[in-house]
């Protein structure tokens, strides 16, 4: 998943605020960031904006559905 513009970034941050549990970004280099952790949030978002192709994981089904709704909006 990649964030391509300011509107997608705003929608993604709004979606993250709605998530209750951990949302993890795993980069191809093996770095892992918990987007619900304030110390890791911006590093994780930066990896979603950069040229990498990171993977996104939600810790709960409810949060996963929120992320799917985000993806539907930005597709």
Describe the fold and architecture:
The protein is α+β, with helices and mostly antiparallel strands. 48% of the residues lie in helices and 15% in strands. The chain contains three helices and three strands. The protein has helices at 6-18, 41-49, 61-74; strands at 23-26, 32-34, 55-58. It has a three-stranded antiparallel beta sheet with strand order 2-1-3. A hairpin with a 5-residue loop joins strand 1 (23-26) and strand 2. The longest helix is centred in the last third of the chain and has 14 residues, at 61-74. The termini are close together. The relative contact order is 0.24. The mean pLDDT is 93.
Can you summarize this structure?
This protein has 75 residues and is an alpha+beta fold. Helices cover 48% and strands 15% of the residues.
Please give the share of residues in helix: 40-55%
Q: Pairing-aware structural class of the strands and helices?
A: alpha+beta
Indicate the low-confidence ranges by residue numbers.
none
Number of strands: 3
| Whole-angstrom Rg | 11 Å
SSE ordering: HEEHEH
Q: In what order do the strands lie side by side in the largest sheet?
A: 2-1-3
Strand content: 5-15%
SS element count, helices: 3
Q: Oligomeric status of the shown chains?
A: single chain
Distance between the termini: 11 Å
Q: Biggest β-sheet, characterized?
A: 3 strands, antiparallel
- Mean of all residue-level pLDDT scores: 93
- Describe the global form: globular
């Amino acid at each position: 998943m990649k964030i391509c513009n300011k509107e997608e970034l705003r929608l993604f941050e709004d979606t993250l605020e709605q998530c209750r549990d951990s949302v993890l970004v795993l980069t191809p280099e093996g770095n892992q960031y918990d987007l619900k952790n304030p110390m890791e949030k911006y590093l994780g978002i930066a990896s979603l904006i950069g040229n990498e192709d990171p993977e996104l994981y939600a810790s709960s089904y409810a949060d996963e559905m929120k992320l799917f709704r985000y993806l539907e909006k930005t597709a």
